[in-house]
Structure to design on (163 residues):
């Protein structure tokens, strides 16, 4: 991945830990006072550690957070031997989390279209405070791999033929 000088990138696949991203972003914000931390996390992962939003408020840190809401534990669904029925994700109103955690001064939004996302990104980039954007992703766009590939690669560890 090509990034500009002074820009870092972290990913939970390094640790293989669902829920890692939110507290990791908190730590990065606290350690790097010069830059801006941008967190992109899935809704299932975020549910495990969303309480850190209140801690972020306590320390006055100002991340830009995007929660990708596709209403599934995406990684669990792909890797589980029994598929999407493995675990049902509780339905949350993510855009309300900052307010519920006392982050009244945060910019918070729920977006469902590319135009709304563009506007939220523009607002977050110019906002002098933390930003939290819930990005609604349709169910039809939620599964990153066709079921046949999931079954062959992740569940049986056999190579995929013809796909």
């Amino acid at each position: 991945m090509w990034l500009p000088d002074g820009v870092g990138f972290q990913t939970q696949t390094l640790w293989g830990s669902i829920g890692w991203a939110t507290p990791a972003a908190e730590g990065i914000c606290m350690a790097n006072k010069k830059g801006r931390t941008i967190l992109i996390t899935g809704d299932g992962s975020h549910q495990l550690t969303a309480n850190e939003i209140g801690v972020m408020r306590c320390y006055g840190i100002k991340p830009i957070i995007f929660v990708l809401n596709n209403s599934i534990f995406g990684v669990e669904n792909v890797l589980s031997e029994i598929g999407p029925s493995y675990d049902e994700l509780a339905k949350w109103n993510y855009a309300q989390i900052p307010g519920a955690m006392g982050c009244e001064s945060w910019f918070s939004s729920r977006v469902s279209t590319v135009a709304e996302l563009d506007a939220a990104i523009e607002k977050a980039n110019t906002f002098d405070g933390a930003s939290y954007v819930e990005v609604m992703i349709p169910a039809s766009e939620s599964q990153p791999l066709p079921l046949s590939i999931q079954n062959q690669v992740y569940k049986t560890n056999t190579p995929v033929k013809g796909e």
Residues 16-155 form a domain with the Rossmann fold fold (CATH 3.40.50.970). The CA atoms of residues 105 and 129 lie 7 Å apart. The first strand starts at residue 38 and ends at 42.
